[in-house]
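Annotated sample (chain length 135).
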Amino acid sequence: MAKQIFINLAVKDVNRSMGFYTALGFTNNPQFSDETTKCMVWSEHIFVMLMNYEKFSTFITKPIADTKSSIAGLFSLSAESVDEMNEILGNGLNAGGTEPNEIRDYGFMQQRTIEDFDGHSWEVFFMDMSKMPTE
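Output written by the structure step:
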């Protein structure tokens, strides 16, 4: 089996969150979804499991972080162009996400941030390796 990554997020409303992540470009895998959990697929090897608080709590021994007021993790998604990055953010904003700061331009990389309804932060970026500093 190929190595895969599953990011598990506690969300208040799994159906509303599924709509937001669908707008970003994720697809739902109904085989691993039910009324408490939605398996959202970014690529062949990257998945986000959206779980309601009750379901999420069955996997942990610590309190669930309040990601509206604190950062529990920062997740990044690569885009193939600046236009794709802007499209992903635009779709997410139209689906109810928020953009907490302006675009950042590092010369070789442009980066934007979007937060979902629960405050989970996602960095969407485009990196042009031909502009990567050599020193």
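Annotation: The first helix runs from residue 14 to 24.
Annotation: The longest strand covers residues 5-11.
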